[in-house]
Specification:
The protein is mainly beta. It is built from one helix and six strands; from the N terminus they run E-E-H-E-E-E-E.
Length: 66
């Protein structure tokens, strides 16, 4: 996840609730169906991904396998 100053022509663009997300073609197959939310839990806040393609993930939730 990183900020984009200018999208590449081959990127797929998604817009929802005033937010624009660009996904490169190689990543699109792995992220298909993923829901992205911004959550606050106590003093912590950040993006939360719900990816239906995940087969296994590490204990901390930072990496996964599809």
């Amino acid at each position: 996840l990183e900020y984009v100053d200018e999208a590449a022509p081959e990127d797929t663009k998604f817009e929802s609730n005033g937010i624009t997300i660009f996904i490169d073609p190689k990543s699109l197959a792995y992220l298909d169906g993923t829901e992205l939310d911004f959550v606050r839990e106590g003093l912590n806040e950040g993006f939360k991904f719900q990816n239906p393609n995940v087969k296994d993930e590490c204990g901390c939730g930072e990496s996964f396998r599809v």
